[in-house]
Design a protein that fits this description.
about 25% helix; three-stranded antiparallel beta sheet; alpha+beta
């Protein structure tokens, strides 16, 4: 599930604290707003294939 909450990409330079919004731009400064949630998995995960294989095996 993707998060709808976004944070101003320039908040460290332009604001005292993070500015959260639901729109694509910051309501205070107009800078681009980015997804505030961290990535659910690391794309560089070298053990991902093994974990998925174990999950498939558990379902059977």
């Amino acid at each position: 599930m993707k998060s709808d909450i976004r944070v101003c990409s320039a908040w460290r330079d332009r604001h005292e604290r993070p500015v959260y919004t639901l729109s694509a731009t910051c309501p205070d400064c107009g800078a681009e707003a980015i997804n505030s949630a961290p990535a659910p998995v690391d794309p560089e995960d070298s053990y991902g294939d093994y974990r998925r294989a174990l999950k498939r095996a558990d379902r059977e």
